[in-house]
TrEMBL record:
It is found in: Nucleus. It comes from Erythranthe guttata (Yellow monkey flower). Residues 8-71 form the OVATE domain. Transcriptional repressor that regulates multiple aspects of plant growth and development. This is Transcription repressor. Signal peptide: none annotated. PANTHER family: TRANSCRIPTION REPRESSOR OFP14, TRANSCRIPTION REPRESSOR OFP7-RELATED. Transmembrane segments: none annotated. Keywords: Nucleus, Repressor, Transcription, Transcription regulation. GO terms for biological process: negative regulation of DNA-templated transcription.
Length: 73
């Protein structure tokens, strides 16, 4: 998992929004630390979300991840 971060159990009626906001927060935190986002970091981010969440949430995680990637382009 990411240094200085922790998982929080949340049940949401809007899982996409929760995942998207959380991922953006993680990316902003990373940028604040060293001003770079690389493929390795993004892969680790995605895999951590997939690992920590139930399979039924994966579609929301993947959509949120792709939208974050689109913003970073």
């Amino acid at each position: 998992m990411f240094l200085g971060s922790f998982a929080v159990c949340v049940y949401s009626s809007k899982p996409y929004d929760e995942f998207y906001s959380s991922m953006v927060e993680m990316v902003i935190s990373k940028l604040d630390q060293d001003l770079t986002i690389d493929l390795e970091y993004m892969e680790e981010l995605l895999l951590s979300y997939l690992k920590l969440n139930e399979k039924k949430a994966h579609k929301h995680i993947l959509k949120a991840f792709l939208d974050v990637i689109e913003v970073l382009k």
